[in-house]
Amino acid sequence: MLGKIILEEAFALPRLEEKTRWWAGMFSTDPETHVQEIQDLNDLRIKHADKHGVGYQILSYTTPGVQDIWDQKEAQALALEINDFVAEKLKQFPDHLGAFATLSMHDPKEAAAELRRTVTEYGFKGALVNDTQRSGPDGDDMIFYDNPKWDVFWETCTELDVPVYIHPRNPTGTIYEKLWKDRSWLVGPPLSFAQGVSLHVLGMVTNGVFDRNPKLQIIIGHMGEHIPFDMWRINHWFEDRKKLLGLDCKKTIREYFNENIWITTSGHFSTTTLNFCLAEVSSDRILFSVDYPFETFEDGCTWFDNAELNTRDRLKIGRENAKNLFKLEEYKDSDAKVI
Prior knowledge:
Number of helices: 14
Strand order of the largest sheet: 4-7-8-9-10
CATH class: Alpha Beta
Low-confidence stretches: none
């Protein structure tokens, strides 16, 4: 399929190359290639996209990013630097590249202001945050965004009509020491990423974020961070047990997924899994993505182009849903077709 749109595609600041190389050592068997790819914004990734039928990419700063910085002033300064950096790079390929804002999530008003700046001045397509924000004097606290204090931020998202992608980050501090240190190979895609994001998103559901902000749109990657596979069980316990005990969700978990939550295929290239998500979530709420450079264009695109899908669902997942969500009316897809 030509003209695909992808939206969980990472970059890093060249000046932080040593930190990027350290991070690559945790996830890549070829750290040097990873560093080269993640620091490149508009050469290698454009060539990969052209080769594999991707017409438009939305870029975001790599995990753990600003969410790993517990000093508020330092985090805000880095977020501004990243946003200004990528905005300048986008000018070279405006028809092929977009970006999510990088935000310090220490303060909801500060985060809302930076989101507004990047959307109105740079045309960013929303924001991507790497799960909870580290905070506290030693970085061992975590800020969740699921209580009423954060409504000023979520209200800004709905006013600007842009989504927020909640992406994972690695466990840190005492959480890492107590849960993950002795089983460190489970950090990242094998388990910890899904555990962190699913806790955060389900916290938003049960703490009323979507009830107070019914038009809010949230994206989660990796085929829904395990939530679709527990959809029946979550719904059963919410509706048949928890609400009778005082849970105050206005809608069912399925309704929140129908109205507020999107999932992407990023880094999860299984047709069996996709078919399951089609049954539980529907093609109306699924978006194609690669997760480059943690995954490759070749693996993601070859899988998606050859997956057993009907033409309607392939078009919706591969391009049309993203065009509507991100208001890409001017996206040039005159040559796009299913092949």
